[in-house]
């Protein structure tokens, strides 16, 4: 399918690895020039060079923390008029809510809600003026419920989800859509680090913990970040202009609900 976005400009946050990299690579594969961001400069440059060599598009790497004003300003200086914004930020650490301080909650909201909201604020009006825009927020499967140890992420992502639900209905008439991708268990460093926490807390082997996680997925495997990338590219395409304000779950069938 021709997605109609070749030559467009995209910002993809937290894109040096994992789901962000999958999104950046898929967009670049459709001919989109991408500005990618992450905190670790060396890894980010490696990713940028790999995407350039694979796709031939222009890839600009901007190192910095997207959860900070300075980090966002640097990214927007490199790509001031994006057609596409993919918001992504590393999830808050797991734990027991009794141990979380006010500072922990503020950090979670800065990373998993406000970073995306301020990127939307900085870019959405320009998209409206140009009559094209696609914003995709990579959120967290934990919002579907049943993950008490991920309360920091759930609280922040829940706020972002509610915010998007209202704004997306205002912007769509201008051909600017805003959607959330809700990833289940994908084979990423983030999931591996969470499994290592479980391993240390329970004394079980990493192989046992991984097998238990995989067993919960009807697909019988973890997701490939490239699969999320392709879904993201579709939502960013001209073909998806009638989809807005949605939470698109990619979980191999794990969520048991029918709605």
How would you summarize this macromolecular structure in one to three sentences?
The protein has 259 residues and is α/β, with parallel strands linked by helices. It contains 8 helices and 7 strands.
Extended strand count:
7
How are the strands of the biggest sheet laid out side by side?
3-2-1-4-5-6-7
Unreliably modeled segments: none
Determine the mean pLDDT: 94
Q: What coarse outline follows from CA principal-axis ratios? A: globular
Please, could you describe this protein's structure?
The protein has 259 residues and is an alpha/beta fold. A seven-stranded parallel sheet has the order 3-2-1-4-5-6-7, sandwiched between helices. Strand 1, helix 1 (18-29) and strand 2 form a beta-alpha-beta unit. The protein has helices at residues 18-29, 41-55, 69-78, 102-130, 151-171, 189-202, 206-215, 225-235, and strands spanning 9-12, 33-38, 59-63, 84-87, 133-138, 176-183, 247-250. The protein is globular and about 55 Å long. The mean pLDDT is 94. It is 47% helix and 14% strand.
Show the helix and strand layout:
Layout: E1 9-12, H1 18-29, E2 33-38, H2 41-55, E3 59-63, H3 69-78, E4 84-87, H4 102-130, E5 133-138, H5 151-171, E6 176-183, H6 189-202, H7 206-215, H8 225-235, E7 247-250
Parallel strand pairs: 1-2, 1-4, 2-3, 4-5, 5-6, 6-7
